[in-house]
Amino acid sequence: MWEQVLACITAYDSTGSRLGVWAKARTLRSMEDVLKITNVEAIYLRLPVVERRTDSSQDALLIKVTTDAGIIGWGEVDGCPLVTKAVVDAPFSHNLATGVGELLIGQDPL
User: Fold this and answer.
1) 2 in the Ramachandran plot: left (φ > 0), alpha (ψ -120 to 50) or beta?
2) Residue 19 and residue 12: Cα distance in Å, rounded?
3) Measuring CA to CA, which residue among 79, 73, 59 is closest to residue 108?
4) Which residue of 25, 59, 78, 94 has the fewest CB atoms within a 10 Å radius of its CB?
5) Is 95 exposed, middle or buried (0-12, 13-18, 19+ CB in 10 A)?
6) Cα–Cα distance for residue pair 104/110, rounded to 1 Å
7) CATH superfamily ID and name for 2-104
């Protein structure tokens, strides 16, 4: 299962070099005690004109997760991009209502 989870993550080190799956496994295991999420960014992409058709390639939402070790992971959202962006970016409202991005800050990405 370890390899399956890592295969879904594209990670880069602090210099921007892409880490391979096995290199990632060694890197992440060696930093396991200190690896923390420092930033979650929802990036909305959209064509200049979105037509009324069944085509999910007209807009998209990418999620960029950064760790304190400089490792960056990317994900793509399969859902309504702007609704999901609002859920990720929502500011703190009270103890039971805050955005997913804020909840992930400080958490172990593994």
Assistant:
1) alpha
2) 5
3) 73
4) 94
5) exposed
6) 11
7) Enolase-like, N-terminal domain (3.30.390.10)
Condensed to tens digits (0 to 9), the pLDDT of residues 21-56 reads 444 444 555 545 568 999 999 999 998 988 888 777
Tell the residue number behind the tokens 């991009």, with chain if given: 81
For residue 46, CA distances in Å to 19, 51, 58, 80, 81 come to 28, 11, 6, 12, 10
Contact between 58 and 47 (Cβ < 8 Å): yes
Q: Bridge-partner residues for 73, per DSSP? A: 11, 65
Question: Taking every pair of C-alpha atoms in the chain, what is the biggest distance, in angstroms?
Answer: 49
pTM above 0.85, yes or no: no
Residues 6+ apart with CB under 8 A from 56: none
